[in-house]
Amino acid sequence: MTDSDSARRPIYRFPLTGAAETLDDLVGTAPRPRPRIEAAAKRAGSLRLRRAALWSAVRELQDRPRTAGYPPRIFVSYRWEDEAVQQWCRRLTAHLRDRGYEVLLDLENLEEDLGPAGVNIAGYVARLVDVQAVLRIITRPYVDGLAREWLLAEDQLMKLMAETGCAIGHVLLRDGTEPPDWGRHGTVDLRDAPEDFTRLDAILAPYRGLALPAAAEEDLVELLIRSRDLLAAERPAEVAGLLARRPDLAGTFEVRQTLAHAWLAQGRLREAAEVALSIEGLPGRPTVETTVDVALILEEAGLPHDALRLITKVILLPTALQPRIRRVAGSLLEDLGAPDAALRQLRWALGQPETAKDPKLGSDLHNMIGHVLLFALGDATAALPHFAAGAALDPDNQHLVTNQLVGLMTAGHTGEARRLAAGWQRRPGLIPPLHRIVEAIEQGVDVRAPSVRTGPRAATHVCTDCGAAYRLDPGTVLCAVCAATSTAARKCPYCASSRWSLAGCPTCHQGEIVRRPGAQLW
């Protein structure tokens, strides 16, 4: 059992993970006079203080819904090394504006306005936190400049923005070298053709969508906040009326996303599905958050094929949100009867550095892997270690405990199951499935997972990079998008893609698929 309730909560911006130091940790929560800030800078170091200030400012803006941008905004960051680079950046800006984007240029006079010890940077962060993409122009002086404190702090901010879904692109110019490891995806090399801006279309396709005045975009954000509050207060009927009063915003991804939530919360699944599917017909590109959210709505509305088709549109994007994307893809693949592909997606997500920063996400992934092993493949023995690992990461994950109890009973560990159930029986606020399982075990009912006849099959091939395992029998084809195997001739029966993988791994998109030593084909 996984957390299907997530589809009932609008996702406008994924939360930051980790427990980085904030400005309050160093300076305190009282008003901050200059002497106290300077004392903190001497005590903690200027760079540490600036990073804490960056994290604080981003966190303060996290409650603000992210939109796709109408038009999308791009921040261009570069080094003012000479007039030639400045002129080149102006030509780049003109190209991007011709492509329909709003462009903000890094004028590199920001350090003069940073305030004492570089803490007064909220305005700078505010400029960046709502852009849809950042282009960093990488030249040798830019890379050398990373040794300076401010650019190190900016690098930290870029990591934070990548983690929250902002697209971070890197353009290699002149003698620029590769960007940091975390930013190597989404890199465009212009060192051999600096005026060939069309190469940027690979990461920034031309925008020909809705254009709103700045005031209307701010109204959109306020509308989303009010709608979110109404949905949280279980007043979904009021949301449709609220949205209807702004017909000028009806063509935005976020308004339709929110309206679909309102219908879903009222049990009107057909209307929710129709509105959710209409999002695909809008020009432009929704945020990753909206795409994931709409896929969850479609899953809840009983359209898993459409949900998977939608989620695969972002499954190849170079974003730090990939573990969350793969989590949804894995859940859908299990629902559609492709447990092996589900395991590949979920295991890949579990092994990513971003997942290690988020114990709740890690716990959820362990739960979902265990769910596939237990209920789809009938392997309780393999499932139990995942339930145990997930419980260690998040002891309050009730969906996981529900599955763990069934797994223990299925594996014959009746005593352990009864002890675990007894501990949870005394807790208030149990979700209904866990309450039913606990009561059944306490009453002596033999709760077991349904018998699965197929069971797990031995893999014949493996990825050289991520270790993903595949069973490729004669006549089997492998989808290059969702990593599911089938005997389909034209389109993948799960995600409807017509792209097949011949040698590359469709799970990590890095390694090659090779024959497992000693593997026998059926």
Automatic annotation (TrEMBL):
Residues 74-198 form the TIR domain. InterPro entries: TIR_dom (IPR000157), Toll_tir_struct_dom_sf (IPR035897), TPR-like_helical_dom_sf (IPR011990). Gene3D superfamilies: Tetratricopeptide repeat domain (1.25.40.10), Toll/interleukin-1 receptor homology (TIR) domain (3.40.50.10140). Pfam families: TIR_2. One of its GO terms (biological process) is signal transduction. This is TIR domain-containing protein.
